[in-house]
Amino acid sequence: MAIPVLICDDSSFARKQMARALPEGWEVEVSFACNGEEAIQAIKEGKGEIVFLDLTMPVLDGFGTLAQIKQQDLNAMVIVVSGDIQPEAHTEVMGLGAMEFIKKPASKEKVLEVLKRFGVI
Amino acid sequence: MTQTANVSITEDQRDCYQEISNVAMGQAADLLARLLGVKVILPIPVVNLIEVNELRMALSGIENSETVSGVCQGFIGNGISGEALLIFNDTSFNDISDLLKYGGVADKSLELELLMDVANILIGACLRGVGEQLDVGFSQGHPVVLGQHVNLNDLVAANNYRWTKTLAIEINYKIEGYNINCDLLLLFAEDAIEVLNRKVNYLLED
User: Fold this and answer.
1) Domain layout of chain A by residue ranges
2) Which residues are CB-contacts of B205 (< 8 A; sequence separation ≥ 6)?
3) Minimum distance, in Å, between the CA of residue B19 and any CA atom of chain A
4) How many angstroms separate the CA of residue A40 from the nearest CA in chain B?
5) B9-205 has CATH 3.40.1550.10 classification
6) pLDDT over threshold 50, residue B2
7) Which residue of A has its CA nearest to B13?
């Protein structure tokens, strides 16, 4: 069965770029969200077993989204994809329960390596 | 013949410029964060196609009442030219001086040194970031002081542009826990916008 993958970013270009970085031949059902609120909703609807999450977003940012996922005990593996590569941002999202941090723009190789490392592919 | 009068950007292109700036400013902020040992608060970059005489309005990150100091630095690569502006509110200097451990109260010449140091780091890293994504190698000219302790209108007026329109990217950096506020502006020349749009279309397509 196809794995539900959610890509959450306020930029349509960034969403497209992320979708292109997904491994070829990986059986997934990709959904998109433009902010954290939409992402939480999609996860609740079972559309985000694996979530690629941006940090800087309007309405609800990535940090807030991670906090919500934790608080509501939602079932999602979150990989943060961000241009904020400061060590502090990295530490903070890992503390909030993110599985991994990938710097933007995400490369095919990096995404594949992370997914393999966590045994989802 | 060029048709610069009709130059425009679509919403998709604007979104793409914003995302490219987002990645580039993150790289620049990381360098600054490491240099100063602080956390840089990242904004959402503002991308606009504006008339050069509206430039003052594009500087939304800095208050009118503040006196400022600023430098500009020209850049060019693969037929794309423009100018980068870095503007600090004057209250920033004491905190930067403390963070860089220059020691003592910042006088005008020390401030100039700080301004040039930070400008080199931020402008260089930002241009490198943008260039990497668009496959352009930018080279930078010498930084030029636009003014120290002047009001923002005078600072902006001090620079003469040969273009009427510009693609302006504004990035307003703040430092967590400090009174440091600076605006980084990348202004692309009117005749560079078409070239940039083509490069961005290429990214949007495949």
Assistant:
1) 3-113
2) none
3) 7
4) 22
5) yes
6) no
7) A13
The domain limits of chain B are 9-205
Percentage of chain A lying above the pLDDT 70 cut: 100
Burial of residue A25, with CB atoms counted within 10 A of its CB: 0-12 exposed, 13-18 middle, 19 or more buried: exposed
In the predicted model, is pLDDT for residue B72 greater than 80?
Answer: yes
CATH superfamily of A3-113: Response regulator (3.40.50.2300)
Which residue from B119, B123, B136 is spatially nearest to B192, judged by alpha carbons? B136
**Residues in chain B within 8 Å Cβ distance of A56:** 22, 42, 44
**pLDDT given for residue B106 in this prediction:** 67
Contact A105 B33 (CB under 8 A): no
Write the CA distances from B135 to A121, B19, B115, B127, integer angstroms: 32, 15, 29, 11
Task: Name which of A111-115, B58-62, B149-153, B171-175 the model is least confident about.
Answer: B58-62
Picking from B16, B26, B133, the nearest residue to A85 by CB comes out as B26
A47 touches chain B (CB under 8 A): no
